[in-house]
């Protein structure tokens, strides 16, 4: 019997992992990769660090070469070979050798599309000027590195993960860098208040971040510098513009072959990564995937999913209907786990954000904020982790988490990600048995703490107030300084604001309260609360705030057991600060 011929279009994350896995499962099939670039299996995730000279030798980015594929895996790789068309009837591809311009056809028994994604270019005048760059490939990185000498200032258009990684690395190379973000927050994949920590940190590290800044044109100046025009009429002079406003699946081949494309513009696949044609599989940035938490289709262009999907498609192809490899491993979908490092700050997330929950119309979720140290405070060098946990009110199922901090962030999000994948609840987080010694964590790890706060809330021991409700009541007056303003504000609250129903007490010390407090808050330090209960009305809700939420929790327990209707503002003043900034 003739051996099966498997062709793979695209030889980087998804395509290369599919090819290697397939060979491990099937020693006898023919495997051929067509890659239109000059390299296969390169580490595109490392490219920003190659720009920043963190990775100095280019060859470190080459995970595997065509020779390695041939010698170790008996896989043929054709680089500089662009697939122009898929003919599903004859099961053939048309391929153009980009060096010789010659075309030829090749036939397949199984085909894998792993063509990835391409950079979205804003449709504005000037984007084709020579000093406008996008970073996707090794040649892109070479070009930027070669031109760095001519640059003193660069604009990074787009404040998502890739744009910010690039901005950091350009800054490290001595450039002045300005990040333009079209919306009101950096890292739109996070919730706005969590993104505030990143903005602060980037500004502290010398990056200029302009929010709600949309470029309308790029112009070339006589001295070869560029002027970027913004929609609001402002202009910025720069030497280079890096485009990083997003990516879109590279679906032209699939479209032309009549494969089903989803509403988000990616190839539709089943749980075996099979397209609408059972002889064709698709993996990586080019496909739409199901979000395991929301159940909705999503584009999720990251390397981990691309690699796993490549492996899975290989198992299904090798399986050939025998149900040996694939039966046990239908693709589980993505849950949105990601991480990014910026000037020593780690930003990580998993599951859904509150923004996504709202977009889905979901209302029966709850959230907690907390700021635990990455390890116990008495061991030197503890750093706070800013965390937000989202969970289902009905059963406590964990829906998502975001964390920002200088140490221990990725570990906590990875743990929560694992619980989400196993349908875990906040009660599971509460009970998780995690590593502890003073330099690594705490007897109550940040993951446990997040679970405990949430579980206490669900059990009714620890009712939580939402910051948004408080901010809505105060937002117009947070800047008022004078006594007159304050008196008017309080009057307004009492007359027509729903928040006047609640009494806001701040249980920090007097000195902390003096330094900064929420307008309208009454200071009753925790240690004197039991003696001052008669100052509070049992007729109105009591909302409690402290530094990070712990003293307020203790106050909540005291007040609840003395018959007060009480709620804690989780995360305390450290969360208030970012909400206040978001509101301004
Ligand atoms: C600068 C940068 C940094 C990144 N950092 C991270 C990170 O830190 N973490 C993370 O998870 N992800 C990161 N990513 C994203 C990650 O690299 C992608 O999600 C992953 O590479 C997707 O794999 P893929 O196989 O689908 O596509 P790709 O790896 O993009 O490979 C697709 C290949 O298909 C080839 N191709 C396309 N069309 C054709 C055709 N017609 N004929 C032949 N070949 C074709 C392309 O040339 C390309 O090489 C980063 C990406 C970039 C660009």
Question: Can you describe this structure?
Answer:
- The chain is α/β, with parallel strands linked by helices.
- 30% of the residues lie in helices and 23% in strands.
- It has 18 helices and 30 strands.
- Strands 3-2-1-7-18 form a 5-stranded parallel sheet. A 5-stranded parallel sheet has the order 9-16-10-11-12.
- Helix 1 (13-25) packs parallel to helix 8.
- The longest helix is centred in the middle third of the chain and has 17 residues, at 303-319.
- It is globular.
- The protein binds flavin-adenine dinucleotide.
- The site of flavin-adenine dinucleotide has 32 residues, from helix 1, helix 2, strand 4 and helix 8.
Question: Which strand order spans the largest sheet, edge to edge or round the barrel?
Answer: 3-2-1-7-18
Rg over C-alpha atoms, rounded to the nearest angstrom: 27 Å
Q: Would you report the number of β strands?
A: 30
Low-pLDDT windows of residues: 474-481, 494-499
Residues in β-strands, percent? 15-25%
The largest β sheet comes out as: 5 strands, parallel
Overall form: globular
What is the helix fraction of residues, given as a range?
A: 25-40%
Mean pLDDT: 93
- CA-to-CA gap between the ends? 71 Å
Structural class: alpha/beta
- Ligand catalogue: flavin-adenine dinucleotide
Number of helices: 18
